[in-house]
TrEMBL record:
CDD domains: SPRY_PRY_TRIM7_like. Residues 493-510 have a biased composition (Low complexity). GO terms for cellular component: external side of plasma membrane. This is Uncharacterized protein.
Length: 510
């Protein structure tokens, strides 16, 4: 007797052919964002074209990929694997049942079952997949006095699975953590933070090591502790002075920021603040002057083109580099230093250091409601080959559509209550004022503005990110025109005719 996936036994008879399915016999480890091939084959080797092959997770209802009678069947496939799986057809004649999964995610981690059957026989093999990601270099910072010493903090993000965080002194001896916490973001990556108390008995470099046990790789950062014993008191006094100066500087900075904000409100009258605020053009975030008829002077859009040398291998650019879409198969492109390999991103060719610049982005496709995308700007120096935090701290100022909701990529993300969600967005960069604004191109409503952006004199580039297939981001030519508060009855700018928008978050509308 052999048992089919449905759980019903079937009498195979004495003369029935025997199926034997063989897996790798060990766990596979693969890196986040890359592709992986799950191996599985018949033993002895024979043609598998006429067999039914089904890759599943924990049960028959969780189908990853289904093949039968020479066809791939997607009716029962889990949504998380749509467009991301491929059965290696060229190996079927030799009994190979290998499955390729593209763009690995944290949710892909775990057990897979390769099941094979025909009318007379059935067998299966288990394949264990361990997904892993290496995060950012640890960031060390000083806290306050505690328990006769100084509290030192270590934080690192972008790891999978949850990593280890260890403290070591100059002799390589482990120091106990006084606290350790962790969190997991929407995409499954872990951030870990630990603290240690440094006393006068510790000297030399203090190291924080964050380690991924699956890949046996780690990231390390050090902080030099000068002086012990007789010099410890002088070190503690010096540190106290540094912390005091830092506190005064922060207080002064907060006072100046509040004062500047109040002046800005008086001068602008419209301000920035929240999603849904209509841009007041006499004093708007773009620095436009007033116009007698209430219509702002137009702001010509800068021509932005996509840089193919930076595009993730899953992204496909149009011939004129004006639009980008995501495919399920990786493109055969050279692995240049500029190319992203973790996040599915692409940059604009243009770099900005000064002045004001705006460009129009439109989201198109048949699966808008269930898509994932982001647009904004990025520091040109951001590392392309490693995980980075998608927030101003990581050098990104952007808005993101995810899980049928729009949000700004602050830290943590800020939900933006907009309905319907705009699909035509002006991205406006003001290098002089340190601001990045996002404006609904269809009605002139301001979506969100990052103020006090820390560009640090670096070049800033347009940034585009696609998390799903079935849509594309398109750069459009236009002129930014919005209305003053006096014209709030007008909902559509003359230069930006309306286009279909995403409906409110909710059930799919056929």
């Amino acid at each position: 007797l052999s048992c089919f996936p449905g759980g019903l036994p079937r009498d195979t008879g004495d003369a029935a052919p025997q199926l034997r399915v063989v897996g790798p016999g060990h766990a596979l480890t693969a890196t986040m964002g890359q592709d992986v091939v799950l191996p599985c084959h018949l033993s002895p080797q024979h043609d598998a074209h006429s067999l039914e092959v089904r890759w599943i997770r924990d049960s028959i209802s969780e189908t990853v990929h289904h093949y039968r009678n020479g066809e791939d069947l997607y009716g029962e496939q889990m949504g998380a694997y749509a467009g991301r799986t491929e059965l290696a057809r060229d190996g079927l004649s030799a009994g190979s049942l290998d499955l390729r999964i593209t763009g690995l995610r944290p949710s892909d981690d775990g057990q897979y079952v390769c099941t094979v059957g025909d009318v007379d026989a059935y067998d299966e093999a288990i394949v264990e997949l361990e997904v892993a990601a290496i995060g950012a270099d640890p960031h060390l910072s000083l806290g306050g006095y505690e328990a006769g010493g100084v509290r030192v903090l270590c934080r690192s993000a972008g790891w999978y699975p949850l990593p280890q965080l260890l403290w070591m002194d100059a002799r390589g001896q482990h120091l106990p953590s006084v606290s350790q916490t962790h969190s997991q973001d929407q995409e499954g990556f872990f951030e870990i933070e630990g603290a240690v108390i440094v006393t006068g008995s510790v000297e030399g470099p203090l190291s924080c090591v964050v380690r991924n046990s699956r890949l046996q790789e780690e990231r390390e950062s050090s902080l030099h502790i000068a002086g012990t014993n007789g010099r410890a008191r002088r070190w503690m006094v010096a540190l106290a002075l540094v912390l005091m100066i830092l506190a005064v500087s922060i207080g002064l900075g907060v006072y100046l920021f509040v004062k500047k904000s109040k002046l800005a409100v008086l001068e602008w009258r419209a301000g920035r603040c929240s999603a849904g605020t209509r841009v007041g053009l006499e004093q708007g975030a773009l620095g436009l002057s007033s116009a007698p008829d209430g219509l702002a002077p137009s702001v010509p859009a800068v021509k932005v083109t996509l840089d193919p040398h930076t595009a993730h291998p899953l992204l496909v650019l149009s011939q004129d580099n004006s639009s980008v879409r995501r495919e399920c198969e990786r493109q055969q492109v050279p692995d240049t230093p500029e190319r992203f390999v973790i996040w599915c991103c692409v940059l604009g060719r243009e770099e900005f250091r000064e002045g004001r610049h705006c460009w129009l982005v439109e989201v198109e496709g048949e699966r808008l409601k269930y898509s994932s995308w982001a647009v904004g700007v990025i520091r040109a120096s951001v590392e392309r080959k490693r995980f980075f935090t998608r927030s101003p701290e990581g050098g990104i100022w952007a808005v993101q559509y995810y899980h049928k909701h729009l949000e700004s990529l602050t830290s943590p993300p800020t939900p933006l209550s907009l309905s319907p969600v705009p699909t035509r967005i002006w991205v406006c960069l003001d290098c002089t004022q340190g601001q990045v604004s996002f404006i609904n191109a269809d009605n002139g409503v301001q979506i969100f503005t990052f103020t006090e952006a820390s560009f640090n004199g670096e070049s800033i580039r347009p940034w585009f990110c696609l998390g799903t297939e079935g849509i594309q981001l398109c750069l459009r030519v236009g002129t930014l025109q919005t209305t003053t508060p006096a014209m709030q009855g007008s909902t559509t700018s003359p230069a930006t005719p309306a286009s279909p928008l995403l409906g409110p978050a909710g059930p799919a509308q056929e």
